[in-house]
Amino acid sequence: MKERLIRLILCFIMSTAILAGCGSDKTALTDSAETNHTDESAEESGEAEPEAITTVGPEDGTHLEMWTFVELHSNFYAEMLNTWNQKNPDKQLNITFTTYPYADMHNKLMMANQTGSGAPDICDIEIGQFPNFMQGQVQFYPLNEVIDPYRTDIVPARIEVYSKDGKNYGAPTHVGATVMYYNTKILEQYGIDYTKIVTWNDYAEAGKKLKEASGGKVFMTSVDTGGTDWLWLAMAEYGEDYTNKEGAPDIELNSIKQMLTMQQSWLEEGIAMISPGGQVDMEEGFANIGDGNIASFPKAMWFMSRFLNYLPEMKDTWAIAPCPVFEEGQPRSVGIGGTGTVVSVQSSNTELAAEFLAFAKLSYEGNEKIWEILGFDTCNTTIWTDETITKDTGNKYLSYFVTNPFDTLNEIKNEIGIIKVGRMNPAIAEQFNLTILNNCFENGAEIESELAAAQDALEIEY
Amino acid sequence: MKNLKKLLYSRKAAPYVFVLPFILSFTVFWIYPLFSTVKMSFQSILPGEIRWVRFDNYNKLLKDSVFHLAIKNSFQYMLLTLVLLIPFPMLFASVMDSNLVKLKGLYKALLYLPALTSVVVAGTIFRLMFSELEGSQMNQLLSWFKIEPIKWLKLRSTSYFALLTIACWRWTGVNMLYFLSGLKNIDKGLYEAAEIDGAGGRQKFMYVTLPLLKPTTIYVLTISIYAGLAMFLESFMLWNGNASPNNIGLTIVGYLYKRGIEKNQLGYASAVGLVLLGIALTINIIQLIMNGTFRKEEKA
């Protein structure tokens, strides 16, 4: 009896200890952020996302399974499914959407492909992971036929990115044009006009001014040790690419050296800080933005949804503008990120699944919804100039920002560079994210030798 | 029917019938995968495209500096856990076995509880505790001593501090229980005899407890060597994936996972797994020979 009591007490102590641990941590996060993050929103981010399963559509419709790694994507597909079912009474669909955490979903799909069973009918694949699935005999159904009716409306490069040997395997979601996000409140407070910034020199000058005016409290930006966005931007501006035509790695590029050298000098001069958590698209990154520690950062258009989800209290603060360049006249943007949606050959309804997928992601109404629900810069660029959409004041994305995102998009429309995504990209990104950027920024290592060492390692891998 | 009965009652056949379930599961779940792994380590495996590549995977391993780093990390972790997780639990067990401690059950349960907690949950909580933000628990602790916040999981030394903290938190109680059961097997008469001969507490520990605990110690050592080399989940959770800066937290199994699952190179991953098997086997055989485990059986 006594022992039982002790056990009970112990269990109680243990569980409260664990809960107390969680609780104080959450407050720690919130305190430093000085924001009103709810616990829910903290849970929503990245890896911590719980599994969510929903089934949509009439029960007697053809049943399909779909996996995604972002719950918002499922919501979008569910809405498109309802439209599909209204329009196609003879092809009713009933789809079960499952949202897995990012790594989990890709690993599960990989295993299903290896073993030849267990794959869903339709699946989202993040662009960085896509090359891993293009090795060997591709286990996806070619979408060429269903893409054809929409082909002329869609930015060709976005379809190309998910293709192999002329076969299109993935339906693209967005362009991912990179822009500069500026915190107008901070910049106005310290007397800086971001619209005058054209080159990286102007940007650094503004940073120096900001540092002096704020007494070193606010940084112009944060540089990433766990993300390659800055480097992609640099490569696009110089028209370079860290894989050559054959897909072999070549990372010792002028553009990359320029960017890293510049960022190192920013850190030395106190213009920039190192992104907490490695890059801005992380819980720590959102906290850092919310804290007002940085006045700007470059990120793709899809980052808009992060503002709405994680930083709703910063409404009417942020402006969107083209990125600075090294030399005037260089292109000012690059497409980053993306999700290619595939149909598995294991599906018993490949054609129907492909047809629905093309309708959901490539049709005009699909693109409208992609903008409306997800806030992405759609692959169908006619949306960008459709005034019923671009001037819609009721849209949550348009009303959040100080500037109209479409103005910037249309301005840089022909300057969005493309970096190839091939077999070596995951390995190259890993070299930068785990080793090179950490060594160069955290430990002040020499850029040339870091790049050379990584190039050697990559060549062995190639 | 009669034949079946005969078979079941047969002295020769019955033992085989009884061990059959074990043999079967051992063959299906251990022997077959082992051979399959050996086979796969000489192949390049992609969906629908399996090729024999002879020693290519192993040749690549020899040149793969990340793999070498993973081996170094696993070794370092293993050695440090041995240093921490054998003497201290042994000491705690001795203290617990003596009359110095009251509420033994409570302490035992308290120390054992972490082993029941999921590593995924614990790892996540440890990650938040060791976060680089000013508000994280470890950095707040430092701020009491007026020390600047540290990027715990970006530096090698502090990362290992975090990894070892998890290891100690989790395994101290388990190892202590092994040693406690070992202590229970020591004849109390030996201690009395030692006392009559004038032995003090320390001498009793050195000359009675330690030698008689040897079988337990060897067992704990053997499983700790393997557990240390095969550590994966702790590091995976602490860095939220297989992505520690400069690979400071990458272990052999972490590398196997990265190659096999994340990068779709099951053949190469098989080679990594076999190297791990080789290393663990070699160390443990040397250790067992040095401890005289094989000799003993000859004597008997």
Automatic annotation (TrEMBL), chain B:
<dbReference type="GO" id="GO:0055085">
    <property type="term" value="P:transmembrane transport"/>
</dbReference>
<keyword id="KW-0813">Transport</keyword>
<feature type="transmembrane region" description="Helical">
    <location>
        <begin position="109"/>
        <end position="130"/>
    </location>
</feature>
<feature type="transmembrane region" description="Helical">
    <location>
        <begin position="212"/>
        <end position="233"/>
    </location>
</feature>
<keyword id="KW-1003">Cell membrane</keyword>
<dbReference type="GO" id="GO:0005886">
    <property type="term" value="C:plasma membrane"/>
</dbReference>
<dbReference type="Pfam" id="PF00528">
    <property type="entry name" value="BPD_transp_1"/>
</dbReference>
<feature type="transmembrane region" description="Helical">
    <location>
        <begin position="75"/>
        <end position="97"/>
    </location>
</feature>
<feature type="transmembrane region" description="Helical">
    <location>
        <begin position="12"/>
        <end position="32"/>
    </location>
</feature>
<comment type="similarity">
    <text>Belongs to the binding-protein-dependent transport system permease family.</text>
</comment>
<keyword id="KW-0812">Transmembrane</keyword>
<dbReference type="InterPro" id="IPR051393">
    <property type="entry name" value="ABC_transporter_permease"/>
</dbReference>
<dbReference type="InterPro" id="IPR035906">
    <property type="entry name" value="MetI-like_sf"/>
</dbReference>
<dbReference type="InterPro" id="IPR000515">
    <property type="entry name" value="MetI-like"/>
</dbReference>
<feature type="transmembrane region" description="Helical">
    <location>
        <begin position="266"/>
        <end position="290"/>
    </location>
</feature>
<protein>
    <submittedName>
        <fullName>L-arabinose transport system permease protein AraP</fullName>
    </submittedName>
</protein>
<feature type="transmembrane region" description="Helical">
    <location>
        <begin position="160"/>
        <end position="180"/>
    </location>
</feature>
<keyword id="KW-0472">Membrane</keyword>
<keyword id="KW-1133">Transmembrane helix</keyword>
